[in-house]
# Entry
Amino acid sequence: MTRADFLRAVRGKPYDRDALNCWQLASLTQWTLFGRVLPVADPALVADVRERVRVLATHPERANWREIAAPVDGALVLMGRGPGKEEHCGTWLADDGGLILHTDEPHGVVLDPPLEIVQARRWRLTYLVPVGER
# Structure
């Protein structure tokens, strides 16, 4: 599947807490476009923001990813109030100067410029790539 085909297939789909939340979309994107496998998330994390923040900060999978200063195509993006307080995720795509593919309840699956997310939600963006990748 090409990137364009994938984006056409997912863009505009409604957010679904059980079948298409932000982690599921990030996992699907990482696998489909970059061949990377992310761990399956406990569905209970969707409703429990504090637990989700804790898991994103401390999950053993985090050791397999390293933070980078500037995003690259396919970077996993964690979003939240600050380091270790991330509660949302997406994937940075180099298309159109850089957009984040993510989903949330009010908007469904969207491609947003990083600056728009930062300004609208006052979030810090953390870009991650697998250890060993540039």
Observations:
- The first strand starts at residue 65 and ends at 68.
- The mean pLDDT is 94.
